[in-house]
Every structure is written in structure tokens, then in C-alpha cells.
Design goal:
Rossmann fold, eight-stranded antiparallel sheet, D-amino Acid Aminotransferase, Chain A, domain 1
Length: 576
């Protein structure tokens, strides 16, 4: 086993890897940006290396700096976690070229799996049908329209190098095609450095099911059960569970299909093969390979009693895992037991379209009790930076049955105390009590179909706002959120003070949608802002003519900064 490992990530996954390394007797070297100088993963690591700057490109995505730091500190291996460098073939190559071990699949596998079109071709050749779609990049909105004419709308426009919901847009009809194509291409370029997109048929009521794979050598993949991840907002997951809440008739088939795909690309280490399942027929379609550890790997650990990070390290070190496929089948010594549910606790306000809410965590108390695990990247007094994603922690619960796990999750969420920033906890409580979630019939359309409409605290008292869940009052430990939540939701983007259109948060202006002299109506988007890995529309709150635009694409703005000003009809300089 390794003596010293560099953890090339931040937040809860860095904390997660550091803890496993400590149990294995491995010293850890953490990297941190200036924004993360006092972060929890920095406090837990044995050694730390500063990466000057804040932006991901100059810190956590700087391959040369990561390699130099690992070599200087005498590391033998680099664990990339998930996100950032985890699926970058060039990073894996650079680390290997420096005589370091990359804890993950090979650069060749990363290229095969990371290019979604290549992965679709690979799955097709292996006999695992993908979601109907293109096998070549789409080059213009006309391609979207032609595809929609053949297969019907809606059409999913997806980044060729994408993942995690980035670079994904849905065109509901021909009129939506130009804007959706442009937005998907723009976000793909910003997130992955490649703006190419491809097209898929957008299934009306699918379930999103993924299979955990683990492989000690090429051609030796095994599957460790399936997880359901259908509860999503903006194509990013909110709640995951294992086993899936849908019919188990397909389970063996989907696991075998995942192994076929993994072996076809020579997969080694941990990863996930994702599928869309028709909610009515149970038929499944290959979606993509995530060549890394997934955020939701914890639920698989909960039902199997395994440490997947430890398994990753053993494989990378050339050590045997000590178990095989038969051990994790029913009746095996590591057979899955019970049911597990994970809730992603993000710094987002679900009443405002899940707008990010970076800031200071003024109070933080985790739940406990039987079957409760919390993987957190922050603690009380920490500040959630606006430069990265919004994940605070993952709440993972286990129960002997799905219903026990669901009720335990509700109880734990009610105990969770977070003050200072809005969180997704109210959304989790609402969803776990929703009839489609209770009976397991939910799909990827459940959230956007109105499951969270009218989300608002029932009352606000000295102990904080409350929400009625399954007929009883659940406290929401976020008093600051009470004033911002409105029945029926609200503006998901920017805001305006009088006639000034203000940035809702710190971020980067990606695109301007108006020019001086343009007329706007209330709710019209004025600009697109990227913050915490999300795009947000900065919108006008009043009708009038744009008098002045104070930013340009690429401008970094602070919360409350004026983006543009609007003149009302009848004012000097306003054209009737």
C-alpha cells in the first residue's frame, strides 16, 4: 500500500478520501486554493500545499501545479476524487509521466468513456443499446430541428465531453432549438473546454438508474448493485437510493449490461455505468460511463459494508480486493442488505429555483442516531465559497426496508441544523413525503412536474421556520431563509432595485442578452451569469428601455452590483 497520497480535490470528497487514507495508515497531502485555506479538508490532512488563486483553472485544475506539489512532497499516488481532474485523460497521463500512480482508470479508458459519442459507439458495438440519438456531433440548431422531425420533440442536447448535468439542455420544440443549442455549447466549452454537443431522444418518463462497477484488471469488471437517481433539478441529482425504487425485474440484466460495457473499454478501478429505464416497460438504455467515483457511492457502501475508496486505493496499489462477484450476490458474504438513501445538502434556495447561496455557516449541527451517516466538507464557522459547487454535505441513511430508510431520512433532516445559508433541506423533506416517492413511482420528471411547487415554511417561530411533513411540523434550521421563501416560488435569476438590474450573487457574466436601447418586459433576461457551476438569468423586474449596460462578457460581478439600468416610459431619454 502507499505511504503518502495527494488528495487533488476539495470539500466533502477530499475529507472522505483523507479519512480512508488515515484508516489505512497512509499520510495525506491536501491542496487548497486561497478560498479554501481554512477548509475542513485542509484541517484534516497531514500536510497541505497552497495553490495560489481562487478560480478552478488556476488551482484545482492546474495539472502542472498538482504534479509539482505531489513530487515535492514525496507522494506516491494522486487521488482525484470526483469532478475537477477526475475524468481528465491529460491529467492522468501527466501524473503517470511523473512516475506517480493515478487512482482511477487509465487515460485510454478516460478518453473512451469521457467522449460520450465514443462511449455510445462502444456500447452499441458491445450489444448494449444506447438512448436513441446521434453518433456524430451536431453542428447547428438545424441538426436539432432535423433530429426532432425524425424522432420527435423534446430533444436532449448534450455535451460530448460532459457529465454532472453540465452542458445539457432540452429543446421542447423547434422554436427552442437555437437557444438550447447555443446554451449547451457555451456551457460545454466553459466546463470541459470542448463545445461539441450531440443529440438524444428525450424520454418522457424515464427513471435514471446507474450501476456501480469495480474492476481489478481489464476484462474483470464486477457490479456492486444499482442506484436510482431520478430525483433531479437542472439535470443534477438531489436524492439517490439503492436498491432502485422501481421494479427489480431488470436488475440482473442491467448489471450484466454494465459489466459488458466496462469490459469492452478495458475498465480498471471504480466507476459507474448509467442507464435510462422506461418507467412503464422496464426497458433500459445505455446513457454514459462515469469513469470515476460517484457522489452517491456512499449508499452502495451502506448496503454492502464496503469502503469503495479503500478498494480504489488497493486496486491502484496492485493489491487484491479480497472479494469477487459471487461475494456480492444474494447469499454471498457481502450480499446487499437493507436499503440506503442519500440526500445532497447543497447551499441553494429551493424556493428560488435552487439559486446558489454561498456565505458563512453560522450554525451547523449534524443529525445522528442509528443508521445515519454524514459526509461533510464544512463545519460551523466555515464559509462556502462562491467559486465552486454548492455541496455542503451528504446525508446517508440506512434501514432494513425502504420505508424505514425513508422515515429515517425525514427524521435526520428534521434534526439537521444549518444557519446562515439557505439549503436544499426543505426540498428533501417535501420530496420524501411526495406520493410518487413514497410508492417509488417517481421519475426524472417528478421534480419539474410540480413536486416542489409552493414550497414555503408553514410558520416562523423562535426556533426557526417550519414545514409540514407527513402531517407534523418539521423545523428548518435556516431562519434567514424564511423571509426569502415565497409560496409558488419566484424569480430564479437576478433581481432589480428600482430601475437597476442587479447581479443576484458573485459570478461571471457569460453572455449579454440586451443592448442599450432595447425594450424589456418584466422577467426578461438581461444577462447570463455563471456562479457555483450554475447558469443564472439576470432578469429585469420592470418594463422599459435599457439605458446603460455596465458589464461585458467575462466581467466578474459581486452580489448587488448593477448590471444594467432601465428607463421607464415617460422618463427623459425613454422612447415611447
Amino acid at each position: 500500500m502507499f505511504n503518502r497520497v495527494m488528495v487533488a480535490n476539495r470539500g466533502e470528497i477530499a475529507v472522505r478520501v483523507i479519512r480512508t487514507c488515515r484508516e489505512l495508515g497512509i499520510r495525506t497531502v491536501a491542496v487548497h486554493s486561497d478560498a479554501d485555506a481554512a477548509a475542513l479538508h485542509v484541517r484534516l490532512a497531514d500536510e497541505v500545499v497552497r495553490l495560489p488563486g481562487v478560480a478552478p483553472g488556476e488551482t484545482y485544475l492546474d495539472v502542472e501545479a498538482i504534479v509539482d506539489a505531489a513530487r515535492q512532497r514525496g507522494c506516491e499516488a494522486v487521488h482525484p476524487g470526483y469532478g475537477f481532474l477526475s475524468e481528465r485523460a491529460d491529467a492522468a497521463e501527466a501524473i503517470r509521466a511523473a512516475s506517480l500512480v493515478w487512482v482511477g482508470p487509465s487515460p485510454e479508458v478516460l478518453r473512451a468513456a469521457g467522449d460520450k459519442l465514443q462511449a455510445r459507439r462502444l456500447a452499441t458495438d458491445a450489444g448494449v443499446p444506447p438512448v436513441p440519438g446521434t453518433l456524430e456531433p451536431a453542428v447547428s440548431p438545424a441538426d436539432v430541428d432535423a433530429f426532432g422531425g425524425r424522432f420527435g420533440y423534446p430533444v436532449a442536447i448534450k455535451a460530448v465531453a460532459g457529465g454532472g448535468g453540465r452542458g445539457l439542455r432540452v429543446a421542447a420544440g423547434a422554436d427552442d432549438a437555437p437557444a438550447a443549442f447555443e446554451a449547451a455549447s457555451r456551457e460545454a466549452l466553459a466546463a470541459f473546454g470542448v463545445g461539441e454537443v450531440y443529440l438524444e431522444r428525450y424520454l418522457a418518463r424515464p427513471k435514471h438508474v446507474e450501476v456501480q462497477i469495480l474492476s481489478e484488471a481489464p476484462g474483470a469488471a464486477m457490479w456492486l448493485g444499482a442506484r436510482e437517481c431520478s430525483l433531479q433539478r437542472r439535470h443534477q441529482k438531489l436524492i439517490e437510493e439503492t436498491p432502485p425504487a422501481c421494479s427489480q425485474d431488470f436488475a440482473a440484466g442491467i448489471g450484466d449490461a454494465a459489466v459488458v460495457v466496462a469490459n469492452a473499454c478495458g475498465y480498471v478501478n471504480a466507476g459507474t455505468v448509467e442507464f435510462l429505464v422506461d418507467a412503464d416497460s422496464g426497458a433500459f438504455y445505455f446513457l454514459e460511463v462515469n469513469a470515476r467515483l460517484q457522489v452517491e457511492h456512499c449508499v452502495t457502501e451502506a448496503v454492502l459494508g464496503l469502503d469503495l475508496v479503500a478498494a480504489q486505493l488497493r486496486i491502484a496499489a496492485g493489491e487484491p480486493l479480497g472479494f469477487g462477484q459471487d461475494d456480492v450476490r444474494p447469499g454471498g458474504r457481502l450480499a446487499p442488505r437493507g436499503h440506503a438513501i442519500e440526500c445532497r445538502i447543497n447551499a441553494e434556495d429551493p424556493s428560488r429555483g435552487f439559486a446558489p447561496t454561498p456565505g458563512l455557516i453560522e450554525r451547523y449541527r449534524e443529525p445522528g442516531g442509528p443508521g445515519v451517516r454524514v459526509d461533510a466538507g464544512f463545519a460551523e464557522g466555515d464559509r462556502i465559497p462562491d467559486a465552486y459547487d454548492s455541496l455542503i454535505a451528504k446525508l446517508v441513511v440506512w434501514g432494513a426496508t425502504r420505508e424505514e430508510a425513508r422515515r429515517r431520512a425525514i427524521r435526520a433532516l428534521e434534526e439537521y441544523e444549518i444557519e446562515g445559508v439557505a439549503t436544499t433541506i426543505p426540498a428533501h423533506l417535501r420530496l420524501l413525503a411526495h406520493p410518487e416517492v413514497v410508492d417509488g413511482s417517481y421519475t426524472t420528471r417528478t421534480v419539474q412536474g410540480g413536486a416542489l411547487d409552493g414550497l414555503a415554511p408553514a410558520a416562523t417561530g423562535p426556533e426557526g421556520p417550519t414545514l409540514i411533513v407527513e402531517g407534523r411540523s418539521a423545523r428548518l434550521w435556516n431562519p434567514a431563509m424564511a423571509g426569502s421563501i415565497r409560496a409558488g416560488g419566484g424569480d430564479t435569476g437576478g433581481g432589480a432595485s428600482g430601475r437597476a438590474v442587479l447581479a443576484p450573487m458573485h459570478g461571471t457574466i457569460l453572455r449579454l442578452l440586451v443592448r442599450e436601447g432595447d425594450r424589456v418586459a418584466p422577467g426578461d433576461a438581461v444577462a447570463i451569469l455563471e456562479a457555483m457551476k450554475m447558469e443564472t438569468h439576470v432578469s429585469a423586474s420592470a418594463a422599459g428601455t435599457v439605458r446603460e449596460v455596465r458589464v461585458v462578457p467575462g466581467s466578474v460581478v459581486e452580489a448587488g452590483e448593477v448590471v444594467a439600468t432601465i428607463g421607464a416610459a415617460g422618463e427623459e431619454g425613454e422612447r415611447p
